[in-house]
Design goal:
Layout (H helix, E strand, L loop, with lengths): L5 E7 L6 H9 L6 E8 L5 H6 L6 E6 L5 H11 L4 E4 L5 E2 L3 H11 L3 E12 L2 E6 L5 H7 L12 E3 H6 L12 H9 L4 E13 L5 H4 L1 H18 L6 H11 L7 H15 L10 H23 L1 H9 L10 H12 L3
Parallel strand pairs: 1-2, 1-4, 2-3, 6-9
Antiparallel strand pairs: 4-8, 5-9, 6-7, 6-8
Helix pairs in contact: 7-9, 10-11, 11-12, 12-13, 12-14, 13-14
């Protein structure tokens, strides 16, 4: 019997309350050519009993005699995987029935893609809390990675050959942001994509990582952002990283200090030399131009015509032409300063 096309990799640590649902969601996939590697990371609850209760031959069960933690267990799973692709699965989440099929088909049709995610919905106690819809293409994902993770770990499907060719593993120095950090490295050697459909469900509960280790996760996420800025050739402070996130989310402070800081940062980004490893010049400059315009246009009612003048004084304003009608509205907003 040949190797399976996909390895589904699921670490388990004391996941008893949710484990059956997680396992069933994989075994009931429309795509069936997979091996299901389940690694019990030293659980002290009934997790092992639940796993061993399944007779499906696709399940390959491994047990860590001691709790190695998530990153070491995932890296062990990378080495054990025999599939052309490796799909991640968390032991408290749910994969919707066509998830593997759709990701496999996308990866097969697009050999340049080495990591594929999907949209997901979050839920708690049976109630849907909302959906997370990430951008579809490599450039969008990489640009947004400068201020937030933009591909969900649990939904990820890797091209195994890319991982092995470049020696890519999760980095234990970035605990609780290990996915974000790996994305920063894998995106420099292959393309990323997100399927524009909800194919995964993320469960929220009292023991989830973001609640228990939020401070560590935040600190290590800052380190990843700093690393990404460095890769495109920019040295930034934590304050500048926060400023860029505010600009991206249209959370503007109506002050000269905010505008001046944004000007320094965005013009610094315009002068960057290393961004072409992630996206084209036209994409990068268009994104900066849109941020530059939105920043000034939306702060004009508070800053008056000075915002309009500052907008046109920067080389950023020439990256994307502004229609005459829009310029007229821009001036009018400035004249109607509150």
């Amino acid at each position: 019997m040949g190797k399976a096309a996909v390895t589904v990799l699921m670490p388990v640590y004391n996941a008893e309350p949710f484990l059956n649902e997680a396992i069933d969601s994989i075994l009931n996939q429309t795509f069936t050519d997979f091996e299901f590697i389940i690694i019990n990371d030293g659980s002290s609850d009934r997790s092992e009993e639940i796993i061993k209760g399944y007779a499906d031959s696709r399940i390959k069960y491994y047990k860590n005699e001691h709790n190695l933690k998530l990153i070491a267990t995932l890296n062990k799973g990378f080495d054990l995987a025999g599939g052309k692709y490796i799909a991640r699965m968390d032991a408290d989440d749910i994969s919707l029935p066509t998830r593997l099929e759709q990701q496999f088909e996308l990866m097969e049709k697009n050999p340049e893609i080495g990591l594929c995610g999907t949209w997901y919905e979050s839920f708690k106690d049976g109630e849907i809390l909302g959906q997370v819809r990430y951008g579809p293409d490599h450039s969008t994902i990489c640009f947004k990675h400068l201020f937030q993770i933009h591909l969900s770990h649990g939904t990820g499907m890797f091209r195994t050959s890319v991982l092995r060719e470049h020696g890519l593993y999760f980095n234990p120095d970035f605990s609780h942001a290990e996915d974000y950090e790996l994305w920063s490295r894998i995106s420099a050697v292959t393309k990323l994509a997100n399927i524009q459909q909800v194919l995964y469900r993320v469960r929220h509960h009292e023991n989830e990582i973001s609640k228990k280790y939020g401070d560590i996760q935040a600190a290590n996420s800052y380190r990843v952002k700093e690393k990404l800025f460095n890769l495109i050739g920019i040295q930034v402070t934590r304050e500048e990283m926060d400023l860029f996130q505010s600009i991206a989310y249209h959370k503007y402070e109506h002050s000269d200090k905010f505008l001046d800081g944004a000007t320094v940062l965005l013009e610094k980004m315009l002068r960057a030399k290393g961004y072409e490893m992630f996206f084209s010049k036209s994409f990068y400059e268009t994104m900066l131009a849109e941020y530059w315009f939105n920043l000034h246009y939306n702060t004009t009612p508070h800053s008056g015509l000075s915002a309009f003048n500052k907008f046109h004084a920067s080389p950023l304003s020439s990256l994307k032409p502004v229609a005459l009608s829009t310029n007229a509205k821009f001036i009018l907003k400035g004249l109607l300063k509150r």
